[in-house]
Amino acid sequence: MLIPSLSVLPIFVSAAMTLALSPPSFGDSAWRMETLPDPWTMRGFANSLDLSGIASSTTTQCLVGSDESFHIQPGIIDRGSRTIRSLPSIPLPIEPGVRKPEIDIEGVAYSVRERSYFVVGSHGVGKKKGDLQPLRHSVYRIPVKADGGVDKAGIRRMSLLPWLERTPELAAYVGRKLQHNGLNIEGLASSGGRLFFGLRAPNKNGRALVIEASPDDLFGRHAAPLKVHALAIPDGRGIREIAAVRDGFILLTGNASAEASKKIPVTMAPGPDNRFELWHWNGLDARPGRISPLPDNGGKAEGLLVLDDPAGHVDLLVVFDGLADGRPLAVRVSKPHR
After folding, report:
1. In the structure, what pLDDT confidence band is assigned to residue 19 with cuts at 50, 70 and 90?
2. Which of 146, 151, 293, 336 is least buried, going by the fewest C-beta atoms within 10 A?
3. CATH code of the domain in which 49 resides
C-alpha cells in the first residue's frame, strides 16, 4: 500500500493561549469517581504489555493501538461478559525499508462525522536515546465500512510536524528530549467533527496543552491554522489521554517528562511515573477540574474507553501500559447535581 505524500503547502498557524496573562489555578471538580465492582478483561492483543490507545465506533466494535508496533488491532466488545477480544492485526502503511518500524501509537479516536478512526504517533523523539524517528510523526485516517470493519485500502497518512514547527508556542519543544519537557503527543479525541490532541509535554509553567484541528484541513489541501488550548494543570504534569464526553472531555494526567534513561540520565519529572489523575474539561474555559487520582496498580494509565455516557455519569475503561492485557479498570465518574 502506497503512502500518499504529505502536504507541503505553506502553513499559517495561530494559537489561542487563553491563560497567557492570568496565573494558573488548580481546583477540584464537583465530579466524583468510583471504581466499578465488575472486572473487565482484554484478550488476544499483540504487544499486550504496551497497549496505549483505544476507541470504539459502536457499542460492540473498537480499535486498539500499541506504542511498540505499527499495527492496529480491531476488537469486539462483549458487554455481557465484560470482555474485549482481539481480531487480527492490521499493519499501517509505512515507508519501505524501515528496520524495526515503530509508530509509537499513543492515541486512538473515532469520528462519527468522518466515519473514521484516527491514530496518532507521539511526534516526539526516542525516549532512550533522544533520536529522531520519522515514523513517530504520523497521523492516520482509517475509514470504517458499513459493516463496522476497517477499510484497509482507504487508510491515509499525514504528519503534524510541519504544523508543530510553525507554531510559536510549540516550535522550541519539537525534537527536544522527552526527559526535558520535549513535545510528546499522548492522547487523541474527536468531538464535533474536530480532533483534539492531548500533549503530555510540554507543560509550560503550569499549563498543559491540547491541540485542536479539523481532519479536513489536516488531510486536505488547506493551510488552516491549529488552535492551541492552554489548560491549568500543575507544573511537571501532562495530558496522557483525552476522551470526549457529552459535557466536554475527560483528561488523564501523569508526569509530563519521561523517566531517565542510560543515555539521558537527568529528567525534569517531579517523581516516579506512578501517579495518574482524572480531570474534567468543558472544552471552553482554561481551568479543568480535578476529579480523582486513579489507584496505583503498578502500571501506567494510557487509554480511556467511554463505555456509557448518559445524563448523570460517565463509565470509563482505563487501560494500563506495562500490565498484561492492559489490565482494564472500570470506573464511574458521576456528574455534579444541578
Report:
1. very low
2. 146
3. 2.120.10
